[in-house]
Specification:
single chain
Amino acid sequence: MGKRKRGGSQKTPGAGEYPPPHVLENAAFESYYRGQGVVPEGEWDLFMASLRKPLGVSFRITGHPSEPSTIALRSYMEREHFSRMGSLNVGGEPVAPPAPISWLPLSWRFDVSRSVLRGKGTKRPEGQECLERSAEEIASLAKIAAFHAFLVAEAELGNISRQEEVSMVPPQLLDVQPGHRVLDLCAAPGSKTQQLLEALSPAFAPSGAPGGGGFVIANDCDYRRCHLLVHQAKRLKSP
């Protein structure tokens, strides 16, 4: 087999085609849950409209809030990115900067789509694809793309975890402490496992309590996804 050529043209941040829109319709889903009566009939349409809203981007800093590296990373992120994202405008609409998630320290939510986070912006309506973006929107997208590059780099180093809010809930409710032994099944791709490993760190032990001794056993029935689990766990360099 011939070797692939390296180099060549590279895409600029945000370049490329938009992914096809997701089909957010499922008759079987609606029929089943409507029949369960879990949502009052008068609120059903509002419930479905809420489900169809795209998820925001959520992330958190790994490590204990008092660790010098954590403090330094948070300070850098707030100074170099958050402070410059106070007046974003994308597609003619204002975009709020990342906001803290109230129930979990060192976590934030950024209410933008994946394409906006990558600096692509919103897809133009049919017939308006060729219209130029305003200077304000171009500047906003550049700031968002720079923040995205920062998230990717820090996630690869294990300093930040890109994780949906719903995935952050179970480890928080379990209240895992240093010294606990945790069995995590259906663990891939590993964001909850990573959060559990952090909770076992001696840094999280109550004052005067012994730290260490705990462990996490994580596995998944889908071996094709297990490499993601291993990769995620290795980022923390946990013993």
